[in-house]
């Protein structure tokens, strides 16, 4: 697998960074995960805009212009043997000695990108749905930043894995925020509800796509706080992310969601999402 480090392309296994890199020592950096279908990056500009905003939020200078990012990503995509890919991209504040919390005066951001083969969600998960648990959201107040410091998300996801389920749904002060690695939507009486973007969640690229598709196809949506009670009383529950696309959650904390089956609005939305992916690929 060919990867990209600071402007150079090389086999992933050969890449090395300094142990003084602040990504390693402090989790001081931001990242993106961009799905690629048939060598076409999905929603690339939206990912690059989010990256630029995240870099600005953490005060790391954006190492490349949008067009330079696009070129490097194209080159990375075409260096792979497989056509469906997930591109992992991370920018850390760079390496500096001695170790100290405050920004170093002179450090060049470390830019790493690599591609993995993208597997679509298994047909069984799409057709029958997945299970989830709820967890307390113990993260910081700036979850809108796609930071590489993901310890709280890692611990929540492991709780899900230990419970034998696909995702941990996070609750803060009695309200839904998001999943450990996804955004969450509910459906009640034909209306789609999801929390409005805030500092307590990451605004997913997929979240935006789902809202756009709902609007284009006259599916009613309400952006509003989703309480724990609404979550548990929902007719349908979905998770969305770039890698999972949109999946129905049919069991929450061991209880059936709605009638425990994949719901009708989910099926519509899943179809719309697949069609949308196709139109982008053939553009
Ligand atoms: N929220 C969190 C915490 C995530 O880690 C992710 C993606 O991994 C998402 C939401 C969904 O974001 P996207 O749709 O951009 O993949």
TrEMBL record:
<dbReference type="InterPro" id="IPR050571">
    <property type="entry name" value="Class-IV_PLP-Dep_Aminotrnsfr"/>
</dbReference>
<dbReference type="Pfam" id="PF01063">
    <property type="entry name" value="Aminotran_4"/>
</dbReference>
<keyword id="KW-0808">Transferase</keyword>
<keyword id="KW-0663">Pyridoxal phosphate</keyword>
<dbReference type="InterPro" id="IPR043132">
    <property type="entry name" value="BCAT-like_C"/>
</dbReference>
<dbReference type="InterPro" id="IPR043131">
    <property type="entry name" value="BCAT-like_N"/>
</dbReference>
<dbReference type="GO" id="GO:0008483">
    <property type="term" value="F:transaminase activity"/>
</dbReference>
<dbReference type="GO" id="GO:0008652">
    <property type="term" value="P:amino acid biosynthetic process"/>
</dbReference>
<dbReference type="InterPro" id="IPR001544">
    <property type="entry name" value="Aminotrans_IV"/>
</dbReference>
<dbReference type="GO" id="GO:0005829">
    <property type="term" value="C:cytosol"/>
</dbReference>
<protein>
    <submittedName>
        <fullName>D-amino acid aminotransferase</fullName>
    </submittedName>
</protein>
<comment type="similarity">
    <text>Belongs to the class-IV pyridoxal-phosphate-dependent aminotransferase family.</text>
</comment>
<dbReference type="InterPro" id="IPR036038">
    <property type="entry name" value="Aminotransferase-like"/>
</dbReference>
<dbReference type="GO" id="GO:0046394">
    <property type="term" value="P:carboxylic acid biosynthetic process"/>
</dbReference>
<keyword id="KW-0032">Aminotransferase</keyword>
């Amino acid at each position: 697998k060919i990867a990209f480090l600071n402007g150079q392309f090389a086999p992933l296994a050969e890449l090395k960074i300094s142990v003084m890199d602040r990504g390693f020592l402090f989790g001081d950096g931001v990242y993106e995960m961009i799905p690629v279908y048939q060598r076409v990056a999905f929603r690339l500009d939206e990912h690059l805009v989010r990256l630029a905003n995240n870099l600005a939020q953490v005060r790391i200078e954006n190492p490349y212009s949008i067009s330079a990012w696009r070129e490097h990503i194209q080159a990375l995509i075409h260096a792979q043997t497989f056509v469906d890919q997930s591109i992992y991209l991370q920018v850390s504040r760079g390496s500096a000695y001695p170790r100290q919390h405050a920004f170093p005066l002179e450090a060049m951001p470390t830019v790493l990108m690599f591609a993995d083969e993208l597997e679509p969600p298994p047909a069984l998960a799409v057709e029958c749905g997945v299970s989830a648990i709820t967890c307390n959201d113990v993260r910081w107040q700036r979850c809108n930043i796609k930071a590489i410091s993901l310890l709280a998300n890692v611990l929540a996801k492991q709780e899900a894995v230990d419970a034998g389920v696909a995702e941990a749904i996070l609750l803060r002060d009695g309200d839904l925020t998001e999943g450990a690695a996804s955004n969450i939507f509910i459906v009640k009486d034909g209306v789609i509800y999801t929390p409005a973007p805030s500092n307590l969640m990451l605004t997913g690229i997929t979240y935006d796509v789902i809202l756009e598709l709902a609007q284009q196809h006259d599916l009613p949506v309400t952006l509003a706080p989703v309480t724990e009670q609404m979550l548990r009383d929902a007719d349908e529950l979905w998770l969305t992310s770039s890698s999972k696309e949109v999946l129905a959650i049919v069991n929450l904390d061991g209880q059936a969601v709605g009638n425990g089956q994949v719901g009708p609005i989910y099926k519509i939305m899943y179809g719309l999402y697949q069609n949308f992916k196709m139109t982008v690929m053939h553009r």
